[in-house]
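Students often ask why inverse folding is considered easier than folding. One informal answer: many sequences map to the same fold, so there is more than one right answer. In these notes we will look at a single instance of the problem. The structure comes first.
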């Protein structure tokens, strides 16, 4: 793992955007693996700014997102990860929406998982995958304990995760109980991975991911044996590293 430590969130977003733009500019048909959550928003803003200023072309770029809620209530479709991606990135680029893939959150979930992995296998893995990390070391919706061998699969959301997300809904009962997520195996099929972590609440997870043993108890530790991972940290998230 290559570890880059910078002073703050804005600088981490700049480093991450530089990595993404290098791939996009080098290959008009690049396939990007994307994430939701608060972490990549700064990077997405910079990609939008670059597109507006420099006209970077996304017309033949393809994207795959990590995860999606299952069966969101119809009055809360604005909480879907598809909506998040449209608002934070896709609506501001000249990307063909048909080339943007987010797991299907309605209908037969198991069929959706197989379809997603089939597409990922066809393209031979994304060219670059952006990841955030949970304070418990999760990546995508792969919570502690999940086997590393899983491809895209259905997960039952942790009670804690549902409580954390309840603020976006009218009540906890409306928070979905299930989601679709790319598995660790699907994530590791990426040719390159960039993981961004900022803030002191990520410091324990970052330590475990980089210096701890490889264990299902800390899903991000599975990245240790991937040959092309760049971890971008601010000083707070790096504060527990010893080496
Ligand atoms: C997002 C995702 C999650 C987040 C993680 C960190 O698609 O799969 O694993 O990356 O929960 O979330 P934030 O960035 O909000 O701290």
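Output (designed amino acids):
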């Amino acid at each position: 793992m290559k570890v880059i430590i910078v002073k703050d969130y804005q600088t981490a977003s700049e480093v991450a955007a530089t990595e993404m733009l290098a791939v996009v500019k080098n290959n008009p048909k690049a396939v990007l693996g994307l994430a939701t959550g608060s972490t990549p928003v700064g990077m997405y803003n910079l990609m939008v700014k670059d597109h507006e200023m420099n006209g970077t072309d996304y017309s033949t770029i393809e994207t795959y997102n990590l995860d999606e809620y299952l069966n969101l209530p119809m009055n809360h479709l604005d909480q879907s990860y598809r909506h998040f991606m449209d608002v934070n990135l896709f609506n501001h680029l000249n990307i063909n929406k048909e080339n943007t893939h987010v797991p299907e959150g309605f209908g037969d979930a198991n069929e959706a998982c197989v379809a997603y992995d089939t597409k990922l296998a066809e393209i031979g893995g994304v060219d670059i995958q952006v990841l955030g990390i949970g304070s418990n070391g999760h990546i995508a919706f792969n919570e502690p304990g999940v086997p590393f061998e899983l491809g895209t699969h259905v997960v039952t959301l942790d009670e804690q995760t549902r409580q954390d997300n309840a603020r976006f809904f009218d009540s906890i009962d409306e928070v979905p109980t299930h989601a679709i997520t790319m598995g660790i195996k699907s994530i590791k099929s990426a040719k390159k991975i960039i993981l961004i972590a900022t803030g002191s609440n990520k410091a324990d997870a970052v330590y475990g991911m980089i210096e701890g043993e490889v264990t299902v108890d800390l899903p991000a530790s599975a990245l240790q044996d991937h040959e092309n991972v760049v971890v971008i940290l601010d000083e707070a998230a790096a504060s527990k590293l010893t080496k």
